[in-house]
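Why do we care about 3D structure at all? Because function follows from shape, and shape follows, mostly, from sequence. That is the central idea of this module. The next example makes it concrete: a single protein chain, its amino acid sequence, and then its structure expressed as C-alpha cells.
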Amino acid sequence: MRLRIIRVIARMNIGGPALQVSALMRGLNTEYFDQRLFAGSVGPDEADYIEKSATDVAVSRVPCLGRAVHPADDLRALRELVAAMRRFRPHIVHTHTAKAGALGRIAAATARVPARVHTYHGHLLHGYFSPWKTRLVVHAERRLARGTDRLVAVGERVRDELLAAGIGRTEQYAVVPPGTLLPSPPERSQARRLLGLPQDSPVVAYVGRVTQIKRPDRFLTVAQEVRRAVPEAHFLMCGEGDLGPALRRDSGLDGALHHLGWRTDVETVYAAADVVLLTSDNEGMPVSLIEAGQAGVPVVAIDVGSVAEVVRDGETGLLAGPHVPELARHTVRLLRDPRLRHDMGERACSWTTRRFGAERLVDDTHRLYASIAVGRGWWPTPTEGEGK
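And the structure:
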C-alpha cells in the first residue's frame, strides 16, 4: 500500500527547514510514498528556496500560511488546508515550523487524518518572545503534542529542552538530524576571485538569515575584536534579513566586511573561508555548520541548541558561550594556526559527511513512516514496508 503524505511548512525560505523538506520530497521512494507539499509565501526580506535551488520540487502555495500571525489570514489558510486534506485523504500529515505545525495539525484533526507528525527544527522556548508570550507558546505546543503521533527533533538537546518544557512524552520523540550534501566546492583561489577577496588574507564567514535571533550584530562585534588582533582579516556575510540595511550602514570594519546576500553557490563561500562563525542566541541544528564541515572548514560557534552535536569541541571546531571576547579569542586562535585549521577541517569533513548525509535523512524518515504504517496496520510487517 502506498502511503499518502501531506507536508506543511509555513514558508520555503532559504534555510535548514526548506532544505530538509526538499530532500524528503525528492528522496522518499515514490513506490511507497505519494507526497504533496503545501507552503506559504516567503517574506519581503527573504529568498525563496524553491525558486533559487529547488525548482524541481512541486509545491502548492497557501498565501496566508506565511510566518506572520494574522487571525483572518490564518483562518483562511486553515480552511485551505482542511479542504486539501479532504480531497487528498492523506494517511499522514507531517508539519514543519511552528505556525505550520499549529495550523497543519489543527487542519489534520478537523479533516480526520489518521496520523500526525511534527518536526521541531528548533524551538521558540527562548530568544524569540517576551516571557508571557513564551508561556503561551509552550501551552499551545503542549496541547498540540497531545494530538500528535510522533514528534521529531533535529537533535537530542532540542528534544531534551522540549521535554523539560513539558512538550510531549519521551516515547513520542524521534531524533532525526538534518541531512544534506554540499556540492563540490571550487578551489580556494577560484572562490576568492569569484567573491572579490584578497588571495592571502584570513577570511571569516557568517552564513544565515540576518535577523535578530541569529545575532549578526554580535558577529560584527566579534569581527571588530578579531581585526584588532589580525588587521588583515576579512569578513563575509552570506544571507539577508530585516537587519541587513542597518548593518550595511555601519559595520565599523572599514571595507573589510563583504555583504554577499543570498547565494545559490554557498559552497563558494565556504571554499573562500578559513573559519565559519555562528553567533546565534537560539538554534536547532544549524545546516550551515553541517555544510561548513562538509567543505572542510572549522567552526567557532556558540553552544546553543544542538550545535554541539554537529561541532565536536576541540576536534572539528571550537565552542563558546555567548561572549564576544571568548568568540574572538577562538577565532583568532584558528586564524593564526593553519595546521590546527587544516586538521579540524579534515575531521569536520569526515564527521559531517558520515553523520549528516541526505540519504541518511531520507532513510530515517522512511523508517519513521514505516513504523506508523505498521502500527496502524497499513503495512503488514516492517520488512515489507522498508524496500527502497
